[in-house]
Amino acid sequence: MKKRKIIIKFLARFFVTYFLLLAVYNFYLKQTQRTGDVFSCAPMTKMVAFHTYELGKLLGFDTYTGQHESELSMKFFVGDVYASRIVEGCNSISIIILFLAFIIAFSGSLKATVIYGLVGTIIIYIVNLFRILLLSLFMYKYPEYQYFLHNIFFPGVIYGTTFILWIIWVNKFSNLKRKKNE
């Protein structure tokens, strides 16, 4: 009975947190994205595209980004070649929401939850920037591997990172870990 209560509590916390954060994010998107005569991505998507461009520049690559004229995406160029597009789903917010919902559901102390949530968010964000940059560079150089790179390899990188962060959270910082040690 006690295990069932723990599972129900976890699921309730997870889904309440997940859907609350998702609702806030969807409201943000509705307020900031523009379609029609002029297309404009949400500031978060623009920021991810800009940071990816800056990362490419920092690493010595000739990269450029700009708003797509006819859709909600940012064009990403390697040299003068349109290598990829960065859409809302590429900005890592959905994965960060999933990450945060999980650590809140398996809560630890408030301090540990807040700090780990911030550190994990930053790690996911940075891994995502490298993911977009490398995906764009590989699509520029090896366009024939686009399906594998975009749909299998690089999603594995970002979700794998998130999974590892969850495992660390549960084993090192969550209340579940503390209860096992008591």
Largest sheet: 3 strands, antiparallel
Low-confidence stretches: none
**H/E series, N to C?**
HHEEEHHHH
SSE class: mainly alpha
The mean pLDDT is 93
**Helical amount:** 55-70%
Q: How many domains?
A: 1
Termini separation comes to: 20 Å
Could you tell me the number of beta strands? 3
Number of helices: 6
* Shape summary: globular
- Strands across the major sheet, in which order? 1-2-3
Q: Indicate the radius of gyration in whole angstroms.
A: 19 Å
Proportion of residues in extended strands? 5-15%
Report on this structure.
With 182 residues, the chain is mostly helical. It has one domain. It is built from 6 helices and 3 strands; from the N terminus they run H-H-E-E-E-H-H-H-H. The chain has a 3-stranded antiparallel beta sheet with strand order 1-2-3, with helices on one face. Strand 1 and strand 2 (74-78) form a beta hairpin. Helix 1 (2-32) runs antiparallel to helix 3, helix 2 (43-58) packs across helix 4 and helix 3 (93-105) runs antiparallel to helix 4 (110-141). The longest helix is centred in the C-terminal third of the chain and has 32 residues, at 110-141. The two termini are 20 Å apart. The mean pLDDT is 93.
Question: Could you give a quick summary of the protein structure above?
Answer:
The protein is built from 6 helices and 3 strands; from the N terminus they run ααβββαααα.
